[in-house]
Amino acid sequence: MPFRRLWATTTVVLCALAGLLLGLVPSAGAAASGTAVAAAPDFKAPYPCGQRWTYSHHSAEVRRALDFVRADGGTTDGTPVLASAAGTAHRHHQANGAGNYVSIEHGGGWRTYYFHLSAFGAPDGAQVAQGQQIGSTGSTGNSSGPHIHYEQLYNGVGQDIRINGSALAYPGGYHQYFLTSDNGCGGSGTPFMTWGSGTRVRADARLSAPVVTTLAGPTSVRVLCQKQGDTVNAEGYTNNWWSKLRDQNGFISNIYIDHPAAQLPGVPLC
Ligand SMILES: [Zn+2]
Predict the structure, then answer these.
(1) In CA terms, which of 90, 185, 206, 241 is 20 to 30 Å from 30?
(2) Measured in angstroms, how far is the CA atom of residue 257 from the centroid of ligand 1?
(3) pLDDT in tens, 84-136
């Protein structure tokens, strides 16, 4: 939709302005190649379990931020913003920049940012758990459309964002890459065994989605949720159901789950 495209472009440009106003833009090259970085918390997506959002990074964006908008038919505005890891949450306000925003100190030099909130969801200084609501998605400050501006910083320097241990891409526009949240799912998934060898785990339930890892052989996995995607024909089976694997942070065709049903019993929809 032309309107949406225009809106998205404006959003990322304004986000870059927000960062400049904060005065926190690191010097060029400060992404610290060669610098030892302490192990990061196991960060999860900053929005609720099962929701699918798309993200982008404008070339003029502040630090290594990604801007997220919903891509699952739900409304971005007002959606809960969740702590991507446990820590101490602080409220901030910057009228002409980040708007209402929360920073969470995770310890070990790690911090996350959540900008442009419509409302706060945790008291200033609160200890928050991973998956706890810290605010609501909005467009406060220098932003022209609801989105979550999200950052991971180490010792004040923006890092390439990793979710469940996997580095996200930095596309220049929305609807190229997607991330389904497993934050706050409350469960640890349902255990299954896989079968086959060289099974590709993909970023989404599509054969064109990037491969995030490969299962060398039969593997014990935890399935968080399942959804219908591309139809796969393999090993004499045809199935369009895919399982989201907790530890691999990606999807495999249900053909490779060692269970006779095409749609797994007792596993929620993504
Ligand atoms: Zn932004």
Answers:
(1) 90
(2) 38
(3) 999 999 999 999 999 999 999 999 999 999 999 999 999 999 998 888 899 99
